[in-house]
TrEMBL record:
NCBIfam families tied to this protein: deoC (TIGR00126)
Family: Belongs to the DeoC/FbaB aldolase family. DeoC type 2 subfamily.
One family name in Pfam for this protein: DeoC
Protein known as: Deoxyribose-phosphate aldolase
PANTHER family: DEOXYRIBOSE-PHOSPHATE ALDOLASE (PTHR10889:SF3)
Species in which this protein is naturally found: Paracoccus methylovorus
The enzyme's E.C. designation: 4.1.2.4
C-alpha cells in the first residue's frame, strides 16, 4: 500500500475457528431488504456528491484483465491512474493540491513489469491477479509459484482466487490451508482473497468463506473476478461486510473490502461508498481498507464530475473510449 496511506496492523490470521462461522445462517431476503434500503436511502448534497466521487476515484483498482492486454494498453491505463481527471476539471474543482490518483492498477502477472515501469515515482501500487485467475483450477504449487513471480516482478498487492469446490463441499480446512499458503507466498505484498461469490450458492456460504479467508490471513476480501455470471451485488457485499465486522469484533483486526465486477456507473460507486459508511464507518472509506475493482467505472465518474462543474454533460465524442 502506498506510503501516504494509513497503516493498520496487518491481519496475522488465526487458527481455523469453525465456531466463528458454523452456526451462522444468512437470510437472503433480509440481506436484500437491508441492501435496497441503503441504495434508496441516500440523498447527498451536490458538493458532497463531488467529494464522494473523488473519494471513489482514490479507491479504484483501475483494472485491465483481458486476453488482448499489451504493454501499450497497460501504459495507457497507468497514465489514467496517475491522472484520472482532465486537467481542466482538476482546476475547476480546485483540487490541484490533492495529487488525485487511483488506489492501484490491477493487471495479469505478465503485465506487472510494464505497469511497474509506467507507474514509477507515482507511489501507486501495482496489484496482480494470481493463482490461476479466474477459475483457480491449477495445481496449488503452480498457483503459489505465480504469486512468487508477480511479487518478484514488483506487484505490491496480490489478488488470489479460491477453490470454489472447497466452499461448495464445506471443506473449510482445505480452504483455510490453501489461503494460508498463498498468504505466506505473498510475503510483504498485501493479499486480497477473491471469493467469486457468484459461484458459491447461498449467502451462508459467502459468510463462511469470508470468515475462513480472514482467519487464513487475508488483508482484503473481494467479491468477484469480474468473470463470473454474477459479480458484485449489494446483498453479497453486505454479507461479506457483516463477516468482516464480526471478525474485527473478535480479533481487533481491520480487514479491507473490494467489490469488483460489473461496477460501471458513478451511482454504483456511491451505493458502495454508502454501504461502507453505514456498515463500517469512516475508516472504510479510504483506499487502505476499501477498493473498487473496475475496468470501466472511471469514465462515468469523470462525466458526472464534469456535469457538477459545468452543469452539463459533454457530448459522447469528447469522452475517452477506455
Ligand atoms: O477486479 C476487477 C474486475 O475484473 C473488474 O471487472 P469489470 O471489468 O467488470 O470492471
Amino acid at each position: 500500500m502506498s506510503a501516504d496511506q494509513e497503516h493498520h496492523l496487518r491481519n496475522p490470521g488465526t487458527p481455523l475457528l469453525p465456531a466463528m462461522f458454523e452456526g451462522i445462517e444468512v437470510n437472503r431476503s433480509a440481506a436484500e431488504r437491508r441492501a435496497s434500503g441503503i441504495a434508496a436511502s441516500r440523498s447527498v448534497k451536490k458538493d458532497h456528491q463531488a467529494a464522494y466521487l473523488l473519494r471513489a476515484i482514490q479507491c479504484i483498482d483501475l483494472t485491465t484483465l483481458a486476453g488482448d492486454d499489451t504493454p501499450g494498453k497497460v501504459a495507457r491505463l497507468c497514465a489514467k491512474a496517475r491522472q484520472p481527471l482532465r486537467p481542466d476539471l482538476i482546476a475547476a474543482l480546485g483540487i490541484g493540491d490533492l495529487n488525485l490518483t487511483t488506489g492501484a492498477v490491477c493487471v495479469y502477472p505478465t503485465m506487472v513489469p510494464h505497469a511497474v515501469k509506467a507507474l514509477e515515482g507515482s507511489g501507486i501500487p501495482v496489484a496482480s491477479v494470481a493463482t490461476g485467475f479466474p477459475a483457480g483450477l491449477t495445481p496449488l504449487p503452480l498457483r503459489l509459484a505465480e504469486i512468487t513471480y508477480a511479487v518478484e516482478q514488483g506487484a505490491r498487492e496480490i489478488d488470489i482466487v479460491i477453490t470454489r469446490e472447497h466452499v461448495l463441499l464445506g471443506n473449510w480446512q482445505a480452504l483455510y490451508d490453501e489461503i494460508a499458503a498463498m498468504r505466506e507466498a505473498c510475503g510483504e505484498a498485501h493479499m486480497k482473497a477473491i471469493l467469486a461469490t457468484g459461484d458459491l450458492g447461498p449467502l451462508t456460504n459467502v459468510y463462511r468463506a469470508s470468515m475462513v479467508a480472514m482467519q487464513a490471513g487475508s488483508d482484503f476480501i473481494k467479491t468477484s473476478t469480474g468473470k463470473e455470471g454474477v459479480n458484485a451485488t449489494l446483498p453479497v457485499s453486505l454479507t461479506m461486510l457483516r463477516a468482516l465486522r464480526d471478525y474485527g469484533d473478535q480479533t481487533g483486526y481491520k480487514i479491507g473490502f473490494k467489490p469488483a465486477g460489473g461496477l460501471k456507473t458513478a451511482k454504483d460507486a456511491m451505493n458502495w461508498l454508502f454501504l461502507m459508511k453505514e456498515e463500517l464507518g469512516g475508516p472504510w472509506l479510504k483506499p487502505d481498507l476499501f477498493r473498487i475493482g473496475a475496468s470501466s467505472l472511471l469514465g462515468d465518474i469523470e462525466r458526472q464530475l464534469e456535469h457538477h462543474v459545468t452543469g452539463r454533460y459533454a457530448s459522447a465524442d469528447r469522452h475517452a473510449m477506455s
